[in-house]
Amino acid sequence: MADLIARIARLWRYPIKSCAGEAVDTLQLDADGWPVGDRGWGVVDAGGELTWMGAHPRLALVHARLVGSDPELQALGRSLTVPGDGGDALDVRGWNGERQDFDVLQVWDAGEDAAALLKTVTGERLRLVRLSIEAQRRPFLNALHVVGNGSLQSWQEALAQPLTGLAQRARPNVLLCAEDGGELPPFIEDILSEARIGDLTLRRTSVCVRCVMPTVDPATGEPQPLALDALTQLSAERVPGAPVQFGIYARGSGAGRLSIGDRVELTLHFGGT
After folding, report:
1. Are residues 254 and 147 part of one domain?
2. pTM for the whole structure
3. How far apart are CA 261 and CA 179, in angstroms?
């Protein structure tokens, strides 16, 4: 029996790691429980290292969506569609926090037009690359990011001044709301162990430890440290002494489809996070 009934309020996927994602009505999970089309591409810096929005905040201005299997980039009034296959094979470095060292990753370069667009937006020599499946699913990476809408509201209320785009800053794949469409209790996801949507189950894998990415204004690409200050305060109230937490990671039990409005049966662990 479920401890609480919720619904899926919104869904996102992020075709390019550390770029703005796309809101979708449905999110397909593959046989391993990972969202199809999510974070299959990345950005590499001039040193040959897989980079992120924390190092290049203006990547938030690059909006990515999938057209079939091809990523379309939109930024500063420009649009570019990149073929979903092909490209020159490269080896790049990706930081592995567990080993405290770099992994060597296989990728395929998306070409000069994509690099030129990234340079126009960020001012930096960056390359768009398609990631191998091994690069996409390194053991310490996570499939789905889940947040409750009550947590977003608590974040807004804790801010020293109002900020826009909190959902975009938090970058969830799944945003949950109450069964009637209202707000869930704040941080209900902290005690969520699994969520059942029909025959599909999303099982919690870990908490989401937050970095500087939520500080980046999705409209301007400018960091706003007060966003992280509020998350730090809220996290310290819930889990004193722990790293800053907001949302959880989960993985699907297998292939299936998530859709906005789906009924979600939440199983909660009341013994703590």
Report:
1. yes
2. 0.96
3. 9
